[in-house]
Each structure stands twice: as C-alpha cells, then as structure tokens.
Amino acid sequence: MSHHKPDPSKSVNLTIDGLPVTVPEGTTILEAARKVGIYIPVLCDHPDLHKRAVCRICVVECDGGGKLKAACANDVWEGVKVVTNSPKIQAIRKTIVELILADHPQDCLTCIRNQKCELQALAIQFGLKELTFPKSDVVSAPNIDTNTLVRDMAKCVKCGRCVDVCQEVQAVRAINTAHRSVHYEVTTPYDQQLIEGPCVYCGQCAAVCPVGAIYENDQTDKVWKAIDDPARHVVVQTAPAVRVALGDEFGLPKGAVTTGKMATALRRLGFTKVFDTDWSADVTILEEGNELLHRLTNGGKLPMITSCSPGWINFCEVFYPDLLDHLSTCKSPQQMFGALVKTYYPKISGVDPASITSVSIMPCTAKKFEAQRPEMNDSGYQDVDVVLTTRELARMIKLAGLDFENLPESDFDRLMGDSTGAAVIFGTSGGVMEAALRTVYEVVTKEPLAPLDLEAVRGHQGLKTVEVDLKGTKVKVVVANGLANARHVMDEIRAGKCDATFIESMCCPGGCVGGGGQPYGNSQIKLQRKDGLYEADKALPIRKSHENPEVQELYKNYLGAPLGEKSHHLLHTHYSTEGKNHWAKTGH
Amino acid sequence: MLKIMESYGNDPQQLIAVLLDIQEASGKNVVEQKWSILASKVLEVPLSKIYDCLTFYAMFSTTPRGRHVIEICQSTPCHFNEAEQVVGWFETALGVKVGCTTDDGVFTLFRTSCVGACDVGPVAKIGDDVFGSLTLDKVNTLVQSYRDGQPKLREALICQN
Predict the structure, then answer these.
(1) Residue numbers of the domain that contains B6
(2) Domains: count for chain B
(3) Residues A310 and A450 in one domain
(4) Which helix H or strand E contains A442, and what residues bound it?
(5) Under DSSP, is residue A92 helix (H, G, I), strand (E, B) or coil?
(6) How far is residue A313's CA from residue B155's CA, in Å, rounded to a whole number?
(7) Is residue B161 part of a domain?
(8) What's the number of domains chain A is made of?
C-alpha cells in the first residue's frame, strides 16, 4: 500500500485464500498467488510488458472488504488477507467477460485464434453457458496490410498489450490508443495503413495479442496450391529459430530441438527439396565477416551493423536513413538463400528456375515484407515466393494430420542443407556476433577462436558490449537486443559517441526465438529456445561457418570468393528509404 | 505554425498548448493532419501520440469547424431549464442543425456536458466564454455579435465566474 520504492530484500507475510505465503517486498498479489498454486485469471496482463490493469479480470478482495484490487498491479503488504475466489469475485469476473463478449464478434470457429485465444479460455474457465447481454452483432473486419500483418480491430479487447510493445518495447510507435469512451480504440494515426506509418512489421503486436485482433497474413493456401501443382518445383528453407519453437505447437517441451522431425514433416507435406536457411546463414557469415575485414583494412564505414533482421532494416530506413551506410550490404540469410536457390541450385541440378516456387519458414512476420521488396529479385525472379511463419507451418502439419511428436528424424537435402553450429545460433540475440567472430578471428589470426563458446555475447540482456582481442587488434563489439535498445545505439552513432567496430542488432526481443511469427510465449520461453539453439550448436560436428563443406563447394563451383562479383550481384544489396518511402514523407 | 512551436521552445512537454495554438491559428478551428505531422517532426513526438491526444480531448478537432464553436449544455439543470429550446433558437438563428457548421464557416453548433454554470442555466459556451440565463433575444444578440465581429454587444452577457 505504501508508495516507497519496494525493497526486495525484505519479506512480506500474507495469506491468500487462507494459505500463508512469504514473498519479497514488491511482489504483486498475482505473483504471490502463483507461489501457492493459485492462478488468478488475467487478460491484459503480460509478464514482459508494463502493468496496465485495464481489464480487471484479476480483481481480488483484500482484508475482507472495500474496493476490489487488480492483482496484477498491486503489490502485497504485510499481513494482508487476500481472497481470490468468492461468489462475489466469480460473478464480477464473469460479468467482465460477458461485457467484452457483448462487443466481440462471435465467430470463434473461423477465427485464427480458435483454441489459442485467451478470451475464449476465460469463457471456458468461467463456464459461460448463456450470455446475459444481447449477443454481439459486431462482425469481423480484417484489414490486410502488404500481405504481412492483418488487423481485425473488431476483435480488439483494448487490453493495450500491442500498444505497449509497439510504443515502449520496440519504440516504433506505429500504433496507439485513440478516441475515448465507446469510441476508444487501438489504431494508427488517422487510420492510415501500416505501410504509411513507421511500422517495421516485427509482428510483436501479434505476438502479444490475446485474441484474434492482430495476426500474420496466413499464406499456407498459396503453398498448398504450389505443392499440388505438378509443374511447380517447390523448395523450402527453414530458419534457425523455427526448429526450437515448432515443438511448442505439438506439446513438446519448450525449446526442444526438432530439426530432424521438422525436415521429415516438410517432406511429408510434399516439398520437393527440404533445405536449410542455416546453410545460407553460413554464407552470410563468410560475406559479412569478409565485409567487416574489408571495411577495417580499407577505411570503410564503421561501426558496421548486421543486416539479417528485416524488421531492423525497416527500422533503420524509417528512423535512421542518414546511417544506412553503417549497415552491412549483406542480404539476410533468407534472401541469400532465395537468390541462390534460383541460380546456383538450377545450375547444379538442371531444374528450370522458372518452375521453382521458393518457400521459407520463418519465425518472423517482417520476412514476409522483406521477400516482397523490389531489391529482392536478383535471381531474375522473386527470390523468395512465399514466407510462412512458424505458426503457419504448424497449421499445415496439423491439417495434414501428421503426428509430429512421433515423426522419425531425417536430414536436410544435400547441396543447400549442410549447416554449422555457427549458423544455428543466428536464431538468438548474440548468435550472429558469435558466429561472425568464430570466423573473423580465425581469418585474422590464422588460429581458431578458443574457446569457441563466446559466453560474453550470449543471453537476452538489452545491450552487451564486449572487447575482442584479435591478437593485438582490439575490437569492440556491441549486441543490441530489441529495437528500443537498438535506438539507443543508433543515437550514440549519430552523436559520434560510439566507438564500437561491429554491432549486431536484432529487431525482436531475444532475437528470432522471440520473432513475431513464433508460437505464442514469453521471455521465459524465449530463453528455453535460446538454450535449445546452443545445445544444437554444441551437438553439431562443425561449428564454424567457413568449414561448412557445402558452403565451400558453393564458392568453389559457383561464387568464386566472398565479396566477388557474383556475390556482389546476388548476395549484397543497398537499402534505401524506398521500402518504407511513404513514411519518409509523412512524419516522425 | 513553426513560430508557434518555437514560442514554446519546441518543447514536447508543451504539446497540448502548441496544438491549441495551432488550432486557433488554423482559421477553421482544426488541427489538420499536415500540422500534426509537422508538430511530430519539430517537437519529436510520435505522430501516434499526437493523434491520441487530439482524439482524446474534446477541445481538439481533426475536422474543420466554425471559427466560433457554440456548445449548449445538456446536463440535468440546463435540461430542466429548457436547454432544448435554446438549441432550437440557435438552429434557427444560424440556419444549421446541431453538429453542423454554417456555410460561411463562422459557427459550429454542438451540445456539451456540464460547464459548471448550473446556477444560470440554460447555458451556452462559445469559445472560452460562458453565457447564462439564455433567452431568444440574448441568443440573437450573441449570434449577431460574433457574426459581425462586435465583441461589445456581448460583453455584458458573459458570465464572470
């Protein structure tokens, strides 16, 4: 109850539904209740976001009377007797859910969040049988933006999670609340399309939405059609972070490494060739590592910043167009793969590139936008035709009736399927940096990096700064996790206060394991996925990108050398404000 | 508009004051989209936050309104003092219905909630001034005063508290 800053070293004793519990000062009633096995229902609350306490589902009684308190936003105090479950509380919570439903489209059966909806879960929990208020006549009104994200604000429950993640966590500030009272809504300024504003398509809004109000534009239909068409040669690539998250959708332990099952599932779905984005992640390291060395020795623009994360690229274009030349010219692994699968692969296999449908499975919604960029047609075709998120792949596997958990394991197809430990850790914040340093260190010093595990760049902290000694040359590297942290680094560069040489920047908090297209979760689950990736790294026989035999073949048989003419044409690009040019004209 | 922002030191904390002045200077009682975009750039406030602010406060408008906004109180005390009749008088005097703007762009007519002058209901608020105990004559005088730019005509009618 007090307004002083809580001191977590002090203990607070209280009872919750008669059960005594002792917790550190500053613990919320919600958290304290979980300690004694009571899960107070929530709707607006999310463990990774600020407290908004707007839905009031979590109300509890304290000391037998007075106003009900929101358990998510009130800290415990000494001696308080909390009641979380009484006829009064049950009735109030039920009414809240009924009031939300009275203004919510009742089309659960055809909603993308059917059985994954937090509102639906509450309706089940409270055993709603008939609705007190007239059945809602609000109808679903999806607004699809650039084939990437769908906003169906008729379904919005105004919890404010998406606003918090967009405004505070990602510091993009594309969407916000607007209007008041019955007109209160979540929207873009002047109801513009996302493409007209600063939205970077990270999809973090979709990742935290409890209902079907914001979600990925499902393109599984396109893929089923291509697979069914005998004239199409359908090739798929899978991003590193997908393999440690896909299992979530099938009840496997969080962070379980499902690489082999995933490859089998893709084959059974009917993909002709099952390749790995990890392979092109290794190519990225060779190109990017050499680009860094080239910049170091030729007085190029420093710090150099990674360019694998398409949400991050969009962010730079919108907010830091003056610093675009700090970005590595390397395309992302998805796009390198796309350019090579319609050039290198046809050359070796004899397949007509015009017949290839190139599909990618990504943890990411921004990848859907990236694949459509005008810069991404260097093979002479659209390099990547369809991008599916992890959630969409899971839908395909379920539709095909595959028993994912019990699928046998298999390997990727050869030519573009070999990968290293360096590639697999691309999927977590710090991974690209570690992978790059494993190669760069060896190129510069002619000795392998020892130990190979660069613990200092691992973990999901906001910013990590590490000094690496390349045998005499000290190189400062920075890892920025999530866009609010990236913004901080970019402001320093702009102010001329950044003395780093190399910066890894990942759009989504946690890196790709926390991508906007991943199975729903929170930062705890992201850490388990991260552990899964490092486990996969350790288990691979080759852990350095330049030792990937199929990558070595690629350079020997096709590309020549990193940064060579062919590489330059296929694997590098220059970003401009074109991708998000509308925004440059319209505002901050 | 740039001068307005400069007069507040381009301080983002002064957003509401800046927007009010911009609205005042617009001549149409509106903060147009182009001005909020400019304010977003100059004050370094995200456009989404400016839009939230503009749509939250009833004093702002994102669509053009008359130079003078007439708001007639519809809360209980005014209602019992025949506020609806006052609405009718204004509609007749202006030649527009509630919610509309006159063709010459001088007046927009609205209803509003309590303005805190219940003792002199029925009440109308025009700009920052409140006028009470309204009669048909007073209404016609007010309309004439604002339309013809004769502030003296209404001076005596302004509620002083």
Answers:
(1) 2-56
(2) 2
(3) yes
(4) helix A431-445
(5) helix
(6) 60
(7) no
(8) 3
pLDDT of A585 strictly over 70: no
Shortest Cα distance, chain A CAs vs residue B113, angstroms? 14
Bridge partner list, A357: A234
The last residue of one of the domains, among A173, A189, A216, is: A216
Residue to test with chain B: of A158, A165, A176, most B Cβ within 10 A: A176
| Residue matched to tokens 């330049």 | A546
Which domain, by its residues, includes A51?
A: 11-85
Minimum CA–CA partner of A178 in chain B: B52
Closest approach of chain A CAs to the CA of B116, in angstroms? 21
Q: Does B63 touch chain A (CB under 8 A)?
A: no
Q: Are residues A63 and A147 in the same domain?
A: no
**B21/A583 Cα distance (integer angstroms):** 26
pLDDT tens for each residue of A268-320: 999 999 999 999 999 999 999 999 999 999 999 999 999 999 999 999 999 99
- Burial of A458 by CB count in 10 Å (0-12 exposed, 13-18 middle, 19+ buried)? buried
Helices and strands counted in chain A (H then E): 20, 18
Mutate to test the interface with B, among A190, A192, A315 (most CBs of B within 10 A): A190
pTM attached to this predicted model? 0.93
Taking an 8 Å cut-off on Cβ atoms, the answer to whether B48 and A175 are in contact is yes
Residues in A closer than 8 angstroms to B50, CB to CB, are 189
CATH assignment of the domain containing A69: 3.10.20.740
Give me the residue label for tokens 């049988």: A129
pLDDT (average), residues A335-339: 98
What per-residue confidence (pLDDT) applies to A130? 83
Identified catalytic residue from A308, A316, A498, A508: A308
Catalytic status, residue A331: no
Note down pLDDT in tens along chain B; length 161 residues. Answer: 899 999 999 999 999 999 999 999 998 999 999 999 999 999 999 999 999 999 999 899 999 999 999 999 999 999 999 999 999 999 999 999 999 999 999 999 999 999 999 999 899 999 889 999 999 999 999 999 999 999 999 988 998 76
Question: What is the CATH classification number for the domain harbouring A515?
Answer: 3.40.50.1780
CB-CB under 8 Å, A587 with B37: yes
Which of A21, A53, A85 represents a domain boundary (last residue)? A85
Give the count of Cβ contacts less than 8 A between chain A and B. 48
B149 and B75 fall within a common domain: yes
Same domain for A109 and A76: no
Q: Is A308 a catalytic residue?
A: yes
CA distances from A53 to A42, A43, A204 (A): 9, 9, 20
Contact A190 B45 (CB under 8 A): no
Give the pLDDT score at A584.
Answer: 40
Distance from CA of A412 to the nearest CA of B (A): 45
Q: What is the CATH number of the domain that holds B133?
A: 3.40.30.10
One domain for residues A229 and A152: no
A370 included as an active-site residue: yes
In whole angstroms, what separates CA A133 from the centre of its chain? 38
**pLDDT top residue among A574 and A199:** A199
CB-CB: which of B40, B46, B52 is closest to A177? B52
Residues B50 and B72 in one domain: no
For residue A375, the model assigns a pLDDT of 86
**B69 inside 8 A of chain A by CB:** no
Instruction: Give a yes or no: residue A6 inside a domain.
Output: no
* Chain A: closest CA distance from residue B39 (Å): 9
Mean pLDDT rounded to a whole number for chain A: 94
What one-character DSSP code corresponds to residue A190?
G
DSSP A73: T
